[in-house]
Design brief:
Number of helices: 0
Order of helices and strands: EEEEEEEEEEE
Shape: globular
Strand content: over 45%
Largest sheet: 7 strands, mixed
Helix content: under 10%
Structural class: mainly beta
Length: about 120
């Protein structure tokens, strides 16, 4: 079992910044991929960013150049620095972790960007 706890969501004006953090705990020896997804109401889940244990990153097209993902292997944590936020970034963001080919999800943290 892996538990993921997110923090850092909130309300910000368009053009502003937020930083999301996620920590993993539980019984595991190694986490493969960690990352963030988001889901707006009535829409499919969307990739935001992922990072492998080797440091390879992948970003969704809508956030490239604005968001930066980073990871602390020793702390089993992942962070997402979100800059130049837009109202369309408003939704719930979910932390993701892959352990032995099984996906785990956090409960989500709300990000709201006002225009």
């Amino acid at each position: 079992q892996v538990q993921l706890v997110e923090s850092g969501g909130g309300l910000v004006q368009a053009g502003g910044s937020l930083r999301l953090s996620c920590g993993a705990s539980g019984r595991f020896t190694r986490i493969g991929v960690m990352g963030w997804y988001r889901r707006a109401s009535g829409k499919q889940r969307e990739l935001v960013a992922t990072i492998t244990d080797g440091g390879t990153t992948t970003y969704g097209d809508s956030v490239k150049g604005r968001f930066t993902i980073s990871r602390d292997i020793a702390k089993n944590a992942v962070s997402l620095q979100m800059n130049s936020l837009k109202p369309e970034d408003t939704t719930v963001y979910y932390c993701y972790a892959e352990v032995r080919n099984y996906a785990y999800w956090g409960q989500g943290t709300q990000v709201t960007v006002s225009s």
